[in-house]
Write a structure and sequence with these properties.
The protein is of the alpha/beta class. The chain has helices spanning 2-7, 26-40, 99-104, 118-126, 137-140, and strands at 54-57, 81-85, 93-97, 107-112, 145-150.
Length: 159
């Protein structure tokens, strides 16, 4: 879907697209993805990539990039990607980029729609910084440019 609706129309070169191999077991997919990113960016040990742009969403619980409230991965600033099991989700296994990568991006775009996101968005911007409780707060405190695109319903609680 992303390829048909975004990548192809934008004429993004295939060499600039790095797909998580969802057909693999999650831990393996995360490892393959991390190694691909290390190779493409020619990273040395301990280095993080600096993506030009990263696209994220926000969940009604304040999660972003498959980093969920209470998950210790929210504190990981040194690794690239990880497999995450989230029991409450219909598709419980996910592969996510980790906070160090998200925070190193030159720019981030956050897309949010729906009234179910209003409380999480309000909390992300106005409550004390605690990304362990509200991982989306990582994006409100990012040192890089972050653009939030929200519909009226999701932004309803913001001043």
């Amino acid at each position: 879907m992303a390829e048909r609706s975004l990548i192809e129309p934008a004429r993004i070169p295939p060499m600039n697209v790095h797909r998580v191999r969802g057909e693999l077991p999650p831990e393996e997919a995360a490892g393959v993805y991390a190694r691909e990113i290390q190779s493409v960016f020619a990273l040395r040990s301990g280095e993080l990539p600096r993506f030009d742009a990263i696209h994220c969403g926000i969940g009604a619980d304040g999660h972003t990039a498959s980093l969920f409230p209470g998950d210790p991965l929210v504190k990981d600033r040194s690794n690239l990607a990880a497999a995450v099991f989230v029991e409450k989700m219909a598709a419980p296994w996910r592969v996510t980029l980790l906070p160090g990568v998200l925070l190193a991006a030159r720019s981030t775009v956050v897309y949010a729609t729906g009234a179910d996101k209003a409380d999480a968005i309000d909390a992300a911007f106005r409550e004390p910084f605690d990304p362990g409780r509200l991982p989306a707060q990582l994006l409100t405190q990012s040192p890089s440019a972050v653009a939030w695109f929200m519909d009226e319903a999701s932004a309803a609680r913001l001043p």
